[in-house]
Amino acid sequence: MPFERVVADHSMTVLRVCRAVVGTHDAEDAWSETFLAAMRTYPELPDSANVEAWLVTIAHRKAIDIIRKQKRIDSSMAMVPDRSMTVTSPSSTNHELWNALQLLPDKQRQAVAYHYLGGLPYLEVAQILGGTPDASRRAAADGIRNLRKTFKDMQIEGASQ
Amino acid sequence: MNTKTNAQQGIPELLAFTAAGAEAVDRLHRQLEESADEAKILDVAYTMMDTPVGTLLLAATERGLLRVAFEVEGLDKVLDELGRKFSPRILRSPKRLDVAAFEIDEYFVRRRTSFDLALDFSLTSGFRQTVQRFLPQIAYGTTESYKHVAALVGNPKAIRAVGSACATNPLPIVVPCHRVLRTNGELGGYLGGLAMKAALLKLEGAA
Q: In angstroms, how far is CA B166 from the centroid of its own chain?
């Protein structure tokens, strides 16, 4: 299959996953690095491979690099809180959701992104994150529960202010 | 995939939060074209262009124009074939085809009678390639017979092989296989269909 079709079919899904895992500010860098790396090795990908799982796996590795960078910047800019959101998201719902996502442990956020946005079954999520499919299922379920709770608290807080 | 269902089961706001507009997707695509080209991994760039004879697909490697295809060939099929025979590292990336598209436009408004483009003959080999490399020497507005072309490339008996070289020409229009006819003046065959062959000859004033 020509790589153009891979981009057309999966561009949006990979961007969603990147946005959820690294935030809107760095998502486009993560997307670009993912597709460039994918294109490099694409000729060696077996025909039978699950292309979406392959792309999400690459996106996962690129996202980890970016999260590491973000954490370095955050610790060196500890005096300037909320860097990512002030630049990137105009709406307060997005702001709250992003904060809620950021409060999740990395593994929960990744499990939520790869299963709920990437559409991967837990078997494949587990191959990316390590551990058993059940552990990935639990991480995603915990992630969603925490997200709902934090998000609701924030909205109530926001409304009462 | 079942992304939408999964996300709705999860938390609907996630979908809205992560959604991106078509504009972002287009921008990312353009960036990918550029960075892949810089990294020397854009093996084939292609574009579509409208012409008086329908949509054409143009594809090029770094070395030159690799393929010109007519709509009747099935453009998706042509891309699949390029992926299998040449390389799957293919992106729609019009920039590399700018000059070729410009010259083909000029050809169709009768402002150009020969092409000044780097050609990549990777898709053919042997005698067929020899014939195809020879064809641009047949002048605009004139025709040759399969038989005479066979003699001109030094293999007078290979009339059928000249026919198959024309029939498998990966670069129609630019490599003018439409200028080769049967000895009795009949059109012979054409990848883009006989009506296309007749239209090109008419455009050139050769029929």
A: 15
